[in-house]
Design goal:
236 residues, alpha/beta, 6-stranded parallel β-sheet, 3-stranded antiparallel β-sheet, 9 helices, 36% helix
């Protein structure tokens, strides 16, 4: 059997495994396929596949359906100008050598794009859209929290991410939200995000809520904080 045939068979089996479990550890995939982790990575790089490896986990790059009231692709172009202006203001708070947390969502990618050049900061995130923007930055040290992948939000959840957060001292945290209401607090659409957001609020020295003006007065299903827990609300 040729090397190419073996690779194609491994990729087909890997795709089936990821399709069944949504997310698969790289080391588990290597054990199941009987090859090294480097071989698995090389197969995905050289072969034609809709898989990608991020933070030691293999996931599908194809969108999947969700019953949530929030879907990333549907929301990402909404209020783009306000989101960019909001993140321009937030980016001015980032200082050289900071360790910062950037939340998931459709607003925070604008912040990731506006991180000052050569500031040599560490960024902690748990979402694909943030990681993809920063992965090629040689002046940014990137920490991606792994776990179970949620395609509707392009983010991860799980005990491992929480455990990692407990070991990191955050200078600043920039959190997003689906809604902010004086009575009902700061809310989001996905319950899997709540433990991470709340741990970040405990760990960060400075906490900033980064939302565009359309989020004011809205209430989503999952409440994770009150407005008083933030040092400032940055909104345009």
């Amino acid at each position: 059997m040729s090397k190419t045939s073996r690779k194609d068979q491994r990729l087909a089996r890997l795709a089936a495994l990821v399709g069944a479990h949504e997310v698969l550890r790289l080391r588990d995939a290597a054990q199941l396929l009987g090859v090294s982790e480097m071989t698995v990575r090389r197969d995905m790089t050289e072969g034609e596949t809709a898989l990608q490896c991020l933070g030691g986990y293999i996931i599908s790059s194809q969108p999947q359906s969700s019953g949530s009231d929030y879907v990333l692709d549907r929301e990402k172009d909404s209020h783009a100008a306000a989101k960019d202006l909001t993140c321009l203001a937030a980016s001015q708070l980032i200082e050289a050598h900071d360790t910062v947390f950037i939340d998931c969502g459709t607003t925070t990618p604008y912040l990731a794009q506006r991180i000052p050049q050569n500031s040599h900061i560490t960024v902690v995130c748990y979402s694909l859209n943030i990681a993809e923007i920063l992965a090629s930055r040689t002046d940014v040290r990137l920490i991606v929290l792994g776990g179970l992948y949620h395609p509707e939000a392009a983010s991860f959840s799980g005990a491992e991410g929480i455990a990692t957060l407990k070991q990191i001292n955050l200078n600043k945290a920039f959190l997003s939200a689906g809604g902010f209401d004086e009575q009902h607090g700061v809310t989001c659409s996905h319950f899997h995000e709540v433990p991470i957001k709340q741990m970040v609020l405990q760990q960060a020295m400075k906490k900033y809520l980064v939302i565009d003006g359309s989020k004011h007065g809205k209430v989503r299903a999952a409440c994770f904080a009150s407005g008083e827990e933030f040092d400032a609300i940055i909104s345009r």
